[in-house]
Amino acid sequence: MTNQKSSRLVQQQIYRNGIFLSSDRLVPEEVAIAVSFGGTTHAVMMATPDDLEDFAIGFALTEGIIQTISDIETINIVAVDGGFDAQVTLKEQSRAQFHARRRHMMGPVGCGLCGIESIEQALRPVPQLQDANAQFMPKDIIDAMALLARQQKLNDATRAVHGAGFYLPEQGVVCVREDVGRHNALDKLAGALLRCSYGAGQGIVAVTSRLSVEMVQKAAIIGVPLLAAISAPTQLAIETADKAGLTLVALVRGQEFDIYTHAERVLHL
């Protein structure tokens, strides 16, 4: 796999106590990452260039292109001018479904209904949570966010990236992924979970961002019963989580948090 450093030192001028000083600062890299299937570029995102195989897998999962890791034949990360191309080869059945979907999305330019498909994709229904019996103590939510912060090595160094972590009761945060983009961090985590043996239905996903509807959609597709965030949710995120059977917890700060949907999954002390 071709990769590059996820951060670098830059020169800066800092103003402290009325004086300008020269200094160095570590900042995260942000490059273009293309995700291609069968030689066709499907999307290009600006992202941090590490854990790119996880990113490609998680993106394919949350976009509905694959269902399991076995749908993928190979992944190659290729350096290109300005970034990387995550080249994914799908197994035959998934490849046929992907090409059929691509053909369906192509329509005449300039027609009055051209945006319908993209709107439907943006507001796509999310799967219903399968493991409805998972329950957690308040301490689990608090610990998930605190442990995520402690394991964000890139953010410790740069203070400029989001994190997504997977927490299991009695085990703690067992997987963390970081990126300059909150969606990318969650996709990277989704890919990592798909590749390992952790059961998503028994844990918590904690994120260092606000809760938009896209974050809820991705969490529901991953199959996690509880999504916790350091910031607040949008109205559509709350509505979508409620329909999916997902417990949505926001504003996790210190020993406090707010529950917006399916509060029965969080046990009272």
The overall number of domains is 2
Unreliable residue runs: 104-116
Instruction: Determine the structural class based on helices, strands and strand pairing.
Output: alpha/beta
CATH class of the largest domain equals Alpha Beta
Number of helices: 8
Q: How are the strands ordered across the major sheet?
A: 8-7-9-10-11-12
Please tell me the overall pLDDT.
91
Oligomer kind: single chain
Based on CA inertia axes, which overall geometry fits? globular
Q: How big a fraction of the residues is strand?
A: 25-35%
Q: By CATH's scheme, which homologous superfamily of the largest domain applies?
A: Cytidine Deaminase, domain 2
Q: Give, in order, the helices and strands.
A: EEEEHEEHHHHEEHEHEHEE
Task: Tell me the Rg in angstroms.
Answer: 20 Å
Helix content: 25-40%
What is the CA-CA span between the terminal residues?
48 Å
Largest sheet: 6 strands, mixed
Q: How many beta strands in the DSSP annotation?
A: 12
Q: Which fold name corresponds to the CATH topology of the largest domain?
A: Cytidine Deaminase, domain 2
Entry summary:
The protein has 2 domains: 31-122, Roll (Ubiquitin-like (UB roll)); 138-265, Cytidine Deaminase, domain 2. It contains 8 helices and 12 strands.
Description:
By secondary structure, the protein is of the alpha/beta class. It folds into two domains: 31-122, Ubiquitin-like (UB roll), CATH 3.10.20; 138-265, 3-Layer(aba) Sandwich (Cytidine Deaminase, domain 2). Helices cover 32% and strands 33% of the residues. It has eight helices and twelve strands. It has helices at 52-62, 92-105, 116-122, 138-150, 153-158, 182-195, 213-222, 235-244, and strands at 7-16, 19-28, 31-37, 40-47, 72-80, 83-90, 162-168, 172-179, 204-207, 226-229, 247-253, 256-261. The chain has a six-stranded mixed sheet with strand order 8-7-9-10-11-12. Strands 4-3-6-5 form a four-stranded mixed sheet. A hairpin with a 2-residue loop joins strand 5 (72-80) and strand 6 (83-90). Helix 6 (182-195) packs parallel to helix 7 (213-222). The radius of gyration is 20 Å and the shape is globular. The chain starts with 6 loop residues before the first strand and ends in an 8-residue tail after the last strand. The relative contact order is 0.13. The model is unreliable at 104-116 (pLDDT under 50).
